[in-house]
């Protein structure tokens, strides 16, 4: 990546949407611009866990404004990530479809562990490098992430469904503060976070850092009251709780350093933060400058540097965990990508890389059962936490793995995407050509694409030399019938 390249990250949080624009300079990202809007999507989930129309409209309006600012950014230089509210929302596809359109870039819903990994990257990149063992706590609107790490490496990540917006709605619904409400909120938060105690125990870390909204807001208030800049202490939290109790309600609360946008969720945020302090025996916490959005920016860098894309390492780990035949997976991947590169339009390198991952993972379902292993593989990819991958990316890999055999038309709406169709065809052809689990003879074998028509051509005599492969290719022609796509095979 060239010095001066602009990068952008959009963080769709449960309380606020944020846009961070940075410039790449000698391995670091320098902030150019930062925009934040309080959207409070986390308040917009109804009893059926659907986003209300008002919540969606607020989000779309914000994304449209962000989209205007991002006009002209190449797609590879923008990352938009959505967190807990959209992980929960049953109608998230409706929001994401329109949201991606108005923003101008795809929005990735990330899993809780992946969110935690990105948060740690953002925090670590903006800290001086040292050998200290770090605990990072990020209390968001509807989830709290905990991470243990050293330097740039997270060693343990966890995500819990407890946050400032959710707890404010549940325990301080009318903005009223009482000792009973704080007690109930803290007990409930500890109950959710209790399983974190074993992994994140006090002897596992040296320094605690708080990132994102709640920690930043509390740090600002305590600093304005005369405390040390960027430091949260037990005494400070106790003092802050007493100030809320004295005010009795959010409307009557007057605190220097408290931003108006944070007033409605301060009760829930403080109760969760106090619970974390008590549960993990934290005496003081430093407010971190980095957060999820910075992690997303640096993740963009890692994806662009040869050999540093975490997703490749994750795929290798999944292959080992599920006992994949490495030699055969490599054979299928090389064959699939060679065919894809013949027929793909210029600029399809990312799609080729994703095809490579799908091909290497095409047999992970065999660990469950060889029968219907393609369906088992798709299920695994739809239900695993894989570092570096967003939820939609894993789903798309899963659809490719499921579609490697059987009827093509069953994949339905996915067949509207020409690049996906080409990926799928190349994976199916590679599985077919490698059916004997040895290196296929692909000399003179070519794949051409013309609109919605594909043609596989072989050199004279190839079909006679490999009759089973030729038979399977002719069957593949039948598999594409009753779809919008046509496959022809020329084997003289």
Describe what you observe in this structure.
- It is a single chain.
- With 492 residues, the chain is α/β, with parallel strands linked by helices.
- Helix content is 46%, strand content 17%.
- It has 19 helices and 14 strands.
- The strands form three sheets. Strands 8-7-6-9-11-10 form a six-stranded mixed sheet, with helices on both faces. The chain has a five-stranded mixed sheet with strand order 3-2-1-4-5, sandwiched between helices.
- Strand 2 (16-25) and strand 3 form a beta hairpin.
- Helix 14 packs across helix 16.
- The two termini are 47 Å apart.
Mass-distribution shape: elongated
Q: Portion of residues in helices?
A: 40-55%
- The total count of strands amounts to 14
Strand content: 15-25%
Poorly predicted spans: none
Task: Please give the order of strands in the largest beta sheet.
Answer: 8-7-6-9-11-10
User: How many helix segments?
Assistant: 19
Spatial gap, N to C terminus: 47 Å
Helix and strand composition category = alpha/beta
Spell out the blueprint of helices and strands.
Elements: E1 6-12, E2 16-25, E3 28-38, H1 53-70, E4 78-82, H2 84-88, H3 92-103, E5 107-109, H4 112-125, E6 133-139, E7 144-150, E8 153-160, H5 164-171, H6 179-193, H7 196-199, E9 207-211, H8 212-224, E10 231-233, H9 234-247, H10 266-280, E11 284-287, H11 292-304, H12 310-321, H13 326-343, H14 349-360, H15 373-382, H16 391-402, H17 418-433, E12 446-450, E13 453-457, H18 462-465, H19 467-479, E14 486-490
Helix pairs in contact: 1-3, 4-11, 5-10, 6-10, 8-10, 9-10, 13-14, 13-17, 14-16, 14-17, 15-16, 17-19
